[in-house]
Amino acid sequence: MAHPVYVCECSDNNQLHFGAIVCMVGTRYKSYCSNIVRTLLVEPTAEMQANYDLLLQVEEEILNKLQHGALLTPSIP
Asked: How many domains does the chain have?
């Protein structure tokens, strides 16, 4: 049986504001641990949006280069 682990980052009296919200759920079954993490952008600043777009492009480029059996070697100019 999976045993959930609860961790709560509780807020104080300071008002919350829009930006990046990180949600994580994890569980453990015997010796196997798994986590699911999602980042939600709510009314992001232009800088946050630009950073997200850049990271999304990097991820897409990496996924396009992955092939079964290929060795991953760094490309140093």
From this structure: 1
